[in-house]
Amino acid sequence: MPINPFHQAGRFYKGNLHTHSTTSDGVLGAEEVCRRYRERGYDFICLSDHFLPAYKFPITDTRPFRTEGFTTILGAEVHVPDTDLGEKWHLLANGLPLDFEPTRPGETAPEIAARCAAAGAFVSMVHPAWNSLSLADASSITAAHAIEVYNHTSAVKTDRGDGTVLLDQLLSRGHRLNALACDDAHFEADDAFGAWVMVKALSRDPDALVAALKAGHYYSSTGAEIHDMRFEGDELVVACSPASGVYLQGKGSRAAQLLGRDITLARLPAHKMGKHGFMRVTVVNAHGQRAWSNPIWRDEH
Ligand SMILES: [Zn+2]
Ligand SMILES: [Zn+2]
Hints:
Blueprint: E1 11-19, H1 30-39, E2 44-47, E3 50-51, E4 71-78, E5 91-94, H2 109-118, E6 122-125, H3 135-139, E7 146-151, H4 152-158, H5 164-172, E8 178-182, E9 196-201, H6 206-214, E10 218-221, E11 226-232, E12 235-250, E13 255-269, E14 278-284, E15 290-292, E16 296-297
One zinc ion binds near residues 77 and 127.
């Protein structure tokens, strides 16, 4: 049985959904950030500056920097008080209107997440390991579409890039969230071009890309590729770029794997993940670069 996005029409577009410019606390201007990603071969980015009063609640207008082969999604990283630990929330919203209303006094994280989603955005919880987002925190954001499984800047600057622990805790408790890998580049360290999404869409149009993101029609990467995933009987068959490990992860402790050298096709025991719940795939290559599928829910296949 085919699994999306691999069996639907369109092509893959490479993009980074989380980046900052001098409009907030980044080092480079918006035009230069767009130029660098464009020259690196990206199909799109979202300049997600910090939506804070100190920066006058910016939605950075990157429309002038779109070209024939490169587009931008408008959005922001929004903040409200307070996580479990009393720190401000960080939520990524890809696909906001330029006139998105500033945060309201007393607005909570679940409320602003819902307001971003209602405005059309793809909403994610970001860098959960860096700021110790708790399971209770994350469970409260019912409007979120995804959670970062990898944040490149958090990996480079704090060695806290991984978000898979929190994702799997949420999935194991029935929360339906997708995975997301992002740079979160500020260009003050070597923090760009380390993590991205591959979105399957019919065109590079920003609205088509946001719709595909919300539908989960993408996978995430730091360098490995997933070419195909399909069910054949009890097995999940994964085609990928040459890998040293192809992993299947399910509820709680459930996991399976194929280990070796230059694996490009893996047949994994999907039935061991149980008749209910989720499974997801991670591909790891010899350089430690990864690709993460979004979770597959058995009741949808
Ligand atoms: Zn942040
Ligand atoms: Zn950020």
